[in-house]
Amino acid sequence: MSSQFTFILAIILGAAVTVSAQSESIPAAAESTVYGMVVFNSGGFRAGLERSVRVLSKVAENNSENEVAFVITYAGGEKIRLRQEATSDRLELADAIQNLYAEAGSGALLDAIKLASEQLIATRLGHDQTSSLVIATDGDTRDSAVKADELLKYLLENKVRLHVLVIAGPRAKHDSLDRLIRGTGGKIYTYTDDPDATADAISADIKVK
To answer: What pLDDT was estimated at residue 98?
Structure first.
């Protein structure tokens, strides 16, 4: 039975990161495609959040019955939250994405990736498979406690690949994120006038083992 609950997902430098959700967690079968969505929801990224929702809700709607996914948002090291537990219900997943909202905060992208990776590994129940995080962000790694090199090592050891939708100005630099994407064999996407096409590309890429 579904219930509202709060638990501590991880500790970063002594600060508790609180994660909330309203859903039942389901085990991922060996044949499932398991992935997580990580969405930047800082108030300063409000327009980017709206674009992220357009793309990621379509990704959710593209899911087959063999796909399991969860949603995490981040707006700072102490504002990394599990918004939707792992589910194979694509409508439930899309609804969770469409109901995301902005909150005060600045960043901590790398911390969010680390915690989402831990959630991903737990969801796939030890299956020896490469799985993906789909991340919507401005690409800035400011205020992250986790170091990029340490994170890359962790992602490679645990077969986690990053597919990243970067919504930022043309002059924005995101070198640390680029290194993580290339290192894990993932892909970077940019927002265009055809968000459905971007979503279709992401949906196809996350199915590749």
So the answer is: 97
